[in-house]
Every structure is written in structure tokens, then in C-alpha cells.
Q: What sequence folds into this?
């Protein structure tokens, strides 16, 4: 049974012919809507999205020396007793700030469906598009004076984070390698023609509004044009541009599109963006898993480690939650072409920063790759944890366009991961 | 081999010259596609249109609503073009349209569209979204393009719609050989030996073909609707014997089992129709039985769901929203539905599920031809009762299609050179990706977004399409139109399918005549303003 919200409670009461109960119903339903908790410290999220589904065994959950490792090695980290895959040399130094959930279980083994599931916390449903973490953050935590989109996807993949039932306005704003300009934000006209064009547009707009005034106003077309123009001239747009960063900082993150993306992510949250998703694709290692994963780590390791270090040095880590996840993990068994296939039943996500207690490891996968993981964590639990860290009432009930009621996250926060204030 | 190289070089040059010439010359006098307006005059056709009109008129009179005036024919043509082809009428088509006597124009236009490959492809894509969504589906087991090509062929041949749907539900074979089976194979579950998912299939069948949301009962009994969890389980059981193997989608042994979490057992569920069981045939595979039941002329939901969806394609909004829920909470047996749905559904059944006839009828109704503007204040009640034509935001591919077409004078259609069409397809895809594909959420009436505005103000495609170039309408109109009045008129017709108002003339004619800017830049500015207007991005 889904929870009733106020409106539905009222509707039930009315249908039951018990209209006198309505005020009481409202009161009860309001009381049942939980107050946002005061525990959280995070204000924004950076999601390192590992498109393709990384092998947990060569990254965050190595089982060196076992059959399932297939020869892959592990290294020790700053965190006693916790090992990482051997390409994570720099991240190993930051492990006291990072927590791992090694027992995430999902039911979706297809890239698109898995991506939707991890990004939104719900399995795909033809009746409704669930909003992703970034959309919920942008919706629930408005920012005054932010002229650029508050939800951004850098190196956006095929399936970027969606606003879902919160509205297309909360879709991630997609942009490519920060080495290039932000798409579509530059007018190629001299100022005078730019102004003239707006006057022309006004003339066409007035003609259409004639006889349709209220309805044309409600399209918000005019406002959207104004907002878009505000963005085009905003100083904050410079946050996308990493070229002015010191060479040393750029080197720290790595001279790769993903490294620049992570650096831009830090700059963006500094100007008030709520959520930045940075995608690193290429983890779908059906063949030659070890070699491909090793080359991916050469990109991920410096960028992830530099991001944690940089945020910390700037005193931003406490206010920024960093999540590193893909749509699923990969099979413990190695296939005949040296690859690993899709594996949604026991893989790792890494969390760090705002609201998260670092240095924790939750769950454990079977070294033989047979049994189910210990302390399994559902995708919904992960979402509840992240939203709670952001101070968002994860149980807040929304009405979908078809009138169903859903919570932001269907799960319980993992208390062990939440930092006490 | 030198002679061969010379020959090759010569033919390349010659070919290039011919192509350039063909593009630079004024288009030849367009041929009018032939049409037979007789169907529009049949008493039986007119009677149905009349009945639908009366149903609306009765409500308008009962509620004392003001009714909008008829819309200009060209704007009705734009609606039809957007709804059935995903683009706006070309200048070439508008010329043909206006060369006909007024009462023949719209019948000609409807027939012109129905014969056009763009219409078959576009309807196929829209229908496919309701059948299989937009997901990429399981690798190698699902071929979406084959599926839409097959659907386009069904539409092109105007195959009775019930036959198409039966093939979707019950078709057998490989998804490459018999593309209808992609309807089933898209639900293959790689983690379960590629077994098609009965739950997703049953959900699709009820939504897409019956306009019912029985699948909401999948997880729980709905507090208001009449469907129970058992109904949905027994419906899913019709796909319990569906298998995917070397021979593709086949029917075989097996029973549908559900994981009963409460009793901690696997429970076997027998197939059973949620209502009207007497329509279920005794013979055939389970899927054939289900297909026959769904499309049975006495199963009222099938025709109603189809009518509501086709109406929504044409008018931008369904008669009953949401499009896949004809049984809203608390209602039953279609009591709460708009009477026009029942009238159109009856005609659809009586004429063998003929989609073209349905489209012709809807397009001939008074309500479809009403204006979207009114001199009076329009109340929400009038909007709800369709006493005025609704404003609907265009879908991304409609905006892209309109942008591409309006930047060309000639119709971009099946006769257009293949390379040009491929380029169009590529540009359309890129644009739609950036604009944000609205996926399956077909008619949700959402507002525009900032990235969309940025794309239309500053994007590569718009810059490409309005700049000075012998291939663009901006330059060709500037060359061919004798004066500013004509230039302006042609630009408005091409982009907005209407002529400028006196106020617009008063503003733009002096601007176009002012030589302070080069002519190409004046044309660019004019087109930019038209393409960035609310009017261009909305159906009205």
C-alpha cells in the first residue's frame, strides 16, 4: 500500500461521504509528513558516473588471490584492512574520507534500465519518470542568485539525469569537455543586432498573444527566453571554464576530459550549482576486462583523488557529497574472452564528503562469487542516505502526473554512513 | 587507365553541376497529387462527423459556452502536418493548397498527407512509442528500426488496425524476420535466460491497446479503481507460455508463476480475462486468445483507446487525459468519457478498424477546425470543452522538423535526394537529443526549458539554416521575391503557415527595406525572430 498524502486522504474522506472528517484528515496527514531532519551538512552533490558498469573486483572490492580475481591485484590504503584495486594508488591516500558500500544489489542488468535505476532510485516504470538525485536536490534546495542551471551533466552520457515528474526544467543541463565552450550559450551577433532581434521577436509575440493572452502567458515562453539570456550573460558561466585554473591544479586532476570535468564540477558547486554529474564511459568490459579497467583507472584515480583533496583544502568537502557509481558491477566469473559481464547483484558505490562518515565499509561480497553479499543494500536505501545527507526529506510524498503518490526514496538511510553533526 | 579517371572526373563535375543547377533553379511548377474527395461526401461519413459535432455542440449549448470561430484553413493544414508528419507544410505545398478551390483544400491536404511516406514513418514512430517505449532494449534481441519500418508499412497499406495489433500480441518468429515480435522481445530479461517478461507485456497491452492501467494493480489493489491484483496476474499469465529461443518468439509449455512473498511460495496463475470473458476464443495459443479478446469488436476499450490516441496525435491533446487511462478513478463502463470517444469508436469498429477513415473523420469535425484565438476572454471551462482549439507545446521532433522544412522552399520528402534526407535525419536526431526527447510522455503539456531556448536562439542548426546559402530559404526568397511585401509574406508562410498581420507588416517591411544591414543579415534576423516565437514552438 502506498502512503496516502493529504490530497488523497481528503479524496478518500470525501468519497466515503464523511466530509466532516476532512479538516481532521488534513491535520492528521500534515502531522504525518515528516519534518526535514537537522542532521545534514551537505549542500551539493558531485556524482562521478561510471557509465558501462565498472568491475568491482578491479576497483573498490578486490579479492586478490581468489579464483574470481583472475589474477588482478590489490593495494593497501590509508584505511587499515581496506584494500583497493591496484590502479587506485592516489585514491588509496584519501580513503579515510571515503566510505564504500560493497553490497549494493539491484534488479536491472541492462545498461539503460540499470542507469535509470541507480540514478533515480527506482526501477523504470512506463507510467512515470522518477527524478534523479540532482533533480531532487535542485528542486528541494533552491539557490538565490544562481543564473546558471543548478543541475549539470558534464560529458553527458546517453542517459543523463532526468527531472522526471519534477519537470523538464530539472533535467541535467548537458555539456561536453570543459575545454570547449558551453553549448549554445554564445550569441554570434554584434550587440546592436541582438537587441534588434528581440524587438522583432516582441512584434511576432504580440501578434500571437492577440486573442490568446492568458494562454500564451501561461506557456512561460517569455520568461524562459529571459532566463536563457540571463544565463548567456552570467559571470557564473565562467565556472565551466577551467582554462584559468593554475597548471598545477589541472595536472592534479589529470589532463583528460573527465579530469577537467571534475575540476569544473568543483568550480560549479562554488557558484551555487546543486548537482554536477561527470561521466566516465568505457567500463563495459565484456572482453579484456583487466586491461580496459586498468586504463580507465588511469583516468579515474587522479581525478577522484584530486577532487577529494581539492574540496578538502578549500573546506568544501563538508558541504559537498561525492558519489562514485555505475549502473551495475561485473560478474565474478571471467568469460572466455577475458571479460566480465553484467552483474547487478553485489557491487560497490563509493561515497565521501558532506553528511557522510568517511572510512566506513558496508557489506561484503563472497570471495567465491557464489553467495549473496552480506548486509545487502538496496538502491532505495542508498538514495535515502544521500537525500538525508542533503537535508532533504527523503520520505516526502509527491503526486505523479497520473495521480499516484511516491516518496523521493523508497528505502531507509544507512545510519552507519551518516555523519553526526 | 587515364581515360577512366578522366571519365570519372568528368562525370563527377557534370553530376555536381546538375545537382547545383537543380537546387538553384526555381522549382518546377508543382504537380498536384491526385485525390478523391468522394469519401468526404458519403452520407455515412458525413453522418458520423455530424454526430460528433452535435455531441460537442450540445455540451457547449448546455454550459452556455462561447465557441471560437473557424480557424484559417492554412492553420488547420499546419495542425494536420505536425500531427501526421511531424513538420510544417512547405512553401511548395502551400502554393498547391491555395491553387485549389476553397472547399477542396483540406480534403486534398488530408489525402496528400495520407499518401506521403513521411506520414507513414511518423505515425509508426508515434505508435511505436506507445508499444515499446524509446529504450534501446536488450542487445541483439531487439531491433527497433525493423519494428518501426514494419509499422510504417502497416500504416502505408492501411492494414486494419486490429490485424496489426493481433500480430503484435501473438506474432511468432525472429525479430529480424517478423518485426512485430520485437513487441515481445524488447522485454527479454537477459538475467533470466532471455525469458520475455509477462508483467511488462501485460502492462503494455492494457495501456497501449485498451487504454487501461490494470498494471497499477501489479503491486497493490488500487483503492478506487475496480482492478485487483488478481486481474493483472491472470492477464500476465497469457504470456506465461511465451519463450524466446533460436526460432525467435514462440509459444510452448509452462505455467505462469508468481512469487507470493506473503506465503513464501511460487504460486501458479491461470490466464483469465479481467472482464468480458465471453469474448475470449477457446482455441489458439494463449497469446492468440488474448489478441483476439483485446481486438474483439465487442471489447469497447480497444476502439476507444485507439480513437483517443489518434485524436491526441492530431490535436496535440487527447480527448480523455491521460491518453492511456480511459477508466479514471471512480468511473466505470465509460460513463465519464467524452461522448465523442464513443461515437468515433463505434464508427471505427463498424468500418473494420480503418485508421485512415478515423483520421479523415476527426480532421473533418468542427471542433478540430476551430480557431485557437478568440476576441473574448476565454474561460477554462471553454478550454476544457474544446470550444476553442488548445495550445500544445510541440514535441522536439516537430520543432526540428518545422525548422528544417521552413528553411527550405521545396518539400523535404520521399522524392528529395537521398543524401539530403539522410542529412535531415542526422540533423533531426542531433537536435532532438539536445532539445530533450520527451520519450513516451506524449501529451503532458509541460513548459519549455532553458536549454531548448538556448538551442533555438544560438544553436548550430538554426545558424546553419538561416545563414546566407543557395540552399536556404532565406537566400532564395531574397533572390526571388519581387519586393518586401512579398518577401515578408513568403517568410511568414514558410515558418508560421500564415500571412503577417498589418502590425507585423508595419514593423518588418521598413526593416527589410533598410539597407543599413546587408540583405542576407536582414533575412537572418527575420527568420530568427519567427523561429524563436512562441507560435513556432506550439501547436495552435
A:
Amino acid at each position: 500500500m502506498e502512503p496516502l498524502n493529504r490530497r488523497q486522504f481528503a479524496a478518500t474522506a470525501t468519497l466515503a461521504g464523511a466530509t466532516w472528517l476532512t479538516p481532521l484528515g488534513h491535520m492528521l496527514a500534515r502531522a504525518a509528513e515528516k519534518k526535514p531532519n537537522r542532521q545534514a551538512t551537505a549542500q551539493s552533490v558531485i556524482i562521478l558516473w561510471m557509465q558501462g558498469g565498472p568491475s568491482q573486483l578491479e576497483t573498490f572490492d578486490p579479492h586478490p588471490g581468489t579464483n574470481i580475481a583472475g589474477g588482478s591485484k590489490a593495494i593497501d590504503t590509508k584505511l587499515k584492512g581496506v584494500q583497493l584495486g591496484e590502479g587506485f594508488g592516489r585514491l588509496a591516500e584519501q580513503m579515510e574520507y571515503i566510505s564504500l558500500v560493497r553490497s549494493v544489489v539491484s534488479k536491472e542488468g541492462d545498461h539503460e534500465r540499470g542507469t535509470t535505476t541507480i540514478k533515480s532510485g527506482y526501477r523504470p516504470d512506463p507510467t512515470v519518470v522518477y527524478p534523479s538525485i540532482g533533480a531532487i536536490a535542485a528542486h528541494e534546495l533552491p539557490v538565490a542568485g544562481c543564473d546558471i542551471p543548478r543541475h549539470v551533466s558534464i560529458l553527458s552520457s546517453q542517459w543523463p539525469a532526468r527531472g522526471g515528474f519534477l519537470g523538464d526544467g530539472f533535467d541535467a543541463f548537458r555539456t561536453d569537455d570543459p575545454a570547449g565552450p558551453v553549448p549554445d550559450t554564445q550569441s554570434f551577433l554584434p550587440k546592436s543586432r541582438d537587441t534588434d532581434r528581440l524587438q522583432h521577436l516582441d512584434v511576432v509575440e504580440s501578434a500571437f498573444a492577440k486573442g490568446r493572452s492568458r494562454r500564451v502567458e501561461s506557456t512561460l515562453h517569455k520568461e524562459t527566453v529571459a532566463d536563457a539570456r540571463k544565463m548567456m550573460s552570467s559571470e557564473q558561466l565562467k565556472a565551466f571554464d577551467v582554462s584559468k585554473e593554475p597548471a598545477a591544479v589541472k595536472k592534479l586532476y589529470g589532463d583528460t576530459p573527465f579530469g577537467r570535468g571534475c575540476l569544473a564540477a568543483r568550480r560549479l558547486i562554488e557558484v551555487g550549482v546543486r548537482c554536477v554529474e561527470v561521466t566516465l564511459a568505457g567500463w563495459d568490459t565484456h572482453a579484456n576486462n583487466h586491461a580496459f579497467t586498468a586504463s580507465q583507472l588511469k583516468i579515474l584515480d587522479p581525478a577522484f583523488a584530486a577532487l577529494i583533496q581539492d574540496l578538502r583544502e578549500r573546506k568544501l568537502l563538508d558541504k559537498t557529497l561525492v558519489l562514485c557509481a555505475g549502473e551495475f558491477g561485473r560478474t565474478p566469473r571471467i568469460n572466455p574472452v577475458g571479460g566480465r559481464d553484467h552483474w547487478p547483484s553485489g557491487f560497490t558505490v563509493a561515497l565521501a564528503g558532506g553528511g557522510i562518515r568517511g572510512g566506513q565499509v558496508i557489506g561484503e561480497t563472497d570471495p567465491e562469487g557464489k553467495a549473496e553479499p552480506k548486509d545487502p543494500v538496496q538502491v532505495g536505501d542508498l538514495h535515502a542516505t544521500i537525500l538525508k545527507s542533503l537535508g532533504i526529506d527523503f520520505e516526502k510524498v509527491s503526486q505523479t502526473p497520473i495521480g499516484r503518490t511516491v516518496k523521493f526514496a523508497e528505502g531507509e538511510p544507512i545510519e552507519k554512513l551518516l555523519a553526526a553533526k | 587507365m587515364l581515360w577512366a579517371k578522366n571519365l570519372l572526373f568528368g562525370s563527377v563535375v557534370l553530376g555536381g553541376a546538375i545537382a547545383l543547377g537543380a537546387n538553384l533553379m526555381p522549382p518546377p511548377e508543382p504537380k498536384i497529387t491526385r485525390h478523391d474527395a468522394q469519401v468526404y461526401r458519403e452520407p455515412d461519413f458525413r453522418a458520423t462527423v455530424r454526430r460528433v459535432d452535435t455531441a460537442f455542440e450540445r455540451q457547449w449549448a448546455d454550459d452556455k459556452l462561447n465557441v471560437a470561430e473557424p480557424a484559417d484553413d492554412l492553420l488547420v493544414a499546419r495542425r494536420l502536418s505536425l500531427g501526421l508528419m511531424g513538420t510544417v507544410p512547405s512553401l511548395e505545398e502551400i502554393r498547391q493548397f491555395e491553387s485549389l478551390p476553397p472547399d477542396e483544400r483540406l480534403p486534398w491536404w488530408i489525402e496528400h498527407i495520407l499518401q506521403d511516406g513521411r506520414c507513414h514513418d511518423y505515425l509508426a514512430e508515434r505508435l511505436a512509442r506507445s508499444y515499446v517505449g524509446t529504450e534501446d532494449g536488450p542487445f541483439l534481441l531487439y531491433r527497433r528500426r525493423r519494428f518501426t519500418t514494419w509499422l510504417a508499412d502497416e500504416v502505408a497499406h492501411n492494414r486494419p488496425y486490429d490485424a496489426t495489433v493481433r500480430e503484435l500480441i501473438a506474432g511468432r518468429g525472429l525479430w529480424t524476420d517478423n518485426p512485430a515480435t520485437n513487441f515481445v522481445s524488447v522485454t527479454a530479461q537477459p538475467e533470466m535466460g532471455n525469458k520475455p517478461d509477462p508483467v511488462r507485456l501485460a502492462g503494455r497491452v492494457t495501456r497501449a491497446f485498451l487504454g487501461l492501467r490494470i498494471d497499477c494493480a501489479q503491486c497493490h489493489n488500487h483503492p478506487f479503481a475496480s482492478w485487483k491484483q488478481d486481474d493483472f496476474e491472470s492477464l500476465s499469465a497469457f504470456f506465461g507460455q511465451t519463450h524466446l529461443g533460436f526460432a525467435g518468439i514462440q509459444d510452448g509449455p509452462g505455467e505462469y508463476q508468481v512469487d507470493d512473498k506473503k506465503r513464501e511460495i511460487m504460486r501458479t496463475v491461470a490466464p483469465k480475462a479481467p472482464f468480458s470473458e465471453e469474448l475470449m476464443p477457446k482455441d489458439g495459443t494463449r497469446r492468440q486468445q488474448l489478441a483476439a479478446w483485446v481486438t474483439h469488436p465487442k471489447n469497447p476499450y480497444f476502439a476507444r483507446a485507439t480513437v483517443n490516441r489518434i485524436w491526441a496525435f492530431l490535436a496535440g491533446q487527447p480527448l480523455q487525459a491521460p491518453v492511456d487511462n480511459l477508466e479514471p478513478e471512480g468511473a466505470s463502463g465509460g460513463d465519464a468519457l467524452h461522448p465523442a470517444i464513443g461515437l468515433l469508436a463505434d464508427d471505427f469498429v463498424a468500418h473494420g478498424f480503418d485508421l485512415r477513415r478515423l483520421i479523415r473523420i476527426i480532421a473533418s469535425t468542427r471542433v478540430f477546425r476551430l480557431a485557437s484565438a478568440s476576441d473574448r476572454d476565454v474561460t477554462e471551462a471553454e478550454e476544457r470543452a474544446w470550444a476553442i482549439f488548445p495550445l500544445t507545446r510541440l514535441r522536439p521532433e516537430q520543432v526540428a522538423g518545422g525548422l528544417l522544412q521552413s528553411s527550405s522552399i521545396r518539400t523535404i520528402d520521399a522524392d528529395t535526394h537521398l543524401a539530403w534526407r539522410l542529412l535531415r535525419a542526422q540533423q533531426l536526431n542531433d537536435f532532438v537529443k539536445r532539445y530533450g526527447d520527451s520519450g513516451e510522455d506524449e501529451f503532458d503539456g509541460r513548459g519549455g526549458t532553458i536549454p531548448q531556448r538556448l538551442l533555438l536562439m544560438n544553436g548550430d542548426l538554426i545558424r546553419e539554416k538561416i545563414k546566407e546559402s543557395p540552399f536556404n530559404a532565406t537566400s532564395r526568397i531574397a533572390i526571388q521575391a519581387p519586393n518586401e511585401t512579398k518577401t515578408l509574406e513568403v517568410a511568414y508562410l514558410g515558418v508560421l503557415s500564415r500571412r503577417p498581420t498589418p502590425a507585423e507588416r508595419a514593423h518588418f517591411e521598413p526593416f527589410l527595406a533598410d539597407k543599413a544591414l546587408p540583405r542576407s543579415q536582414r533575412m537572418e534576423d527575420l527568420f530568427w525572430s519567427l523561429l524563436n516565437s512562441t507560435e513556432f514552438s506550439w501547436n495552435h
About this structure: Chain A has twelve helices and 15 strands. Chain A touches chain B through 61 residues (CB under 8 Å). The first strand of chain A starts at residue 44 and ends at 51.
